[in-house]
Amino acid sequence: MAVELHPEKYDFREYKEFHVNSIRFDQAVRNICTQNACGQYGKNHMCPPAIKDIREWEKEILSYKNAMIVTKVYQTKNKFDMKSMFEGIADFQKTLIRLKEDLADEFPDKRVLLLGAGSCFICKKCTYADGEPCRFPEKAFPSIEACGVDVMSLSKSAGVRYNNGENTVTYIGVVLY
Ligand code: SF4
């Protein structure tokens, strides 16, 4: 049985299928992680330098036949409203985890890969910094950017909005199946 996504179940703002070959990989995107603006570089199993290099991600991502880009939009008070942004990204990650769990239940024999936004938030404190293995490797997934993919370009080529207006933040994920 082929994997069928039901994106309408997850309250996404937009979802669109696109061709995996349209994904462009760029080491410069991955290098931005080393600036550690999010504070997660070297602290999370799903972030650099813990994850594979971008050539390995490229090989893995291009091994999938189907891809869908999904977005969710969250209101903020202003561009400094970190609280709303954090709550939004946490909700977005939870949505993607739910989608991943649903697909694993429905299609246990199929390969599915998710790419999200930001680092993995499943645990309060990631075990990476303590040198311990990931607690939930079947649930955790990296961000799109950590794999060396420019989200803005990808959203443009896939035909979804990267920016949904003033006082909003848009989070973008990719499902490969
Ligand atoms: S599931 Fe927990 S241990 Fe694994 S990457 Fe996410 S936060 Fe880290």
Descriptive key words:
177 residues; 4-stranded antiparallel sheet; binds iron/sulfur cluster; globular; alpha+beta
- Average pLDDT, rounded to a whole number, is 95
Low-confidence stretches: none
Bound molecules: iron/sulfur cluster
The fraction of residues assigned to DSSP E strands is 5-15%
Rough outline: globular
For the record, give the distance between the C-alpha atoms at the N and C termini, rounded to a whole number.
12 Å
* Number of continuous helical runs: 4
Measured as a percent range, the helix fraction is 25-40%
Instruction: Tell me the Rg in angstroms.
Output: 16 Å
The strand order across the widest sheet is 1-2-4-3
Largest sheet: 4 strands, antiparallel
Report the order of strands and helices: EHHEHEHE
Domains counted in the coordinates: how many? 1
Structural class: alpha+beta
Number of strands: 4
Model description:
It is built from four helices and four strands; from the N terminus they run βααβαβαβ. It has about 180 residues and is an alpha+beta fold. It has one domain. It has a four-stranded antiparallel sheet with strand order 1-2-4-3, with helices on both faces. The radius of gyration is 16 Å and the shape is globular. About 30% of the residues are buried. The structure holds iron/sulfur cluster. The site of iron/sulfur cluster has 13 residues, from loops.
Topology:
Layout lengths: L13 E5 L8 H5 L22 H9 L4 E9 L6 H25 L6 E3 L35 H8 L9 E9 L1
Antiparallel strand pairs: 1-2, 2-4, 3-4
The site of iron/sulfur cluster (SF4) has 13 residues, from loops.
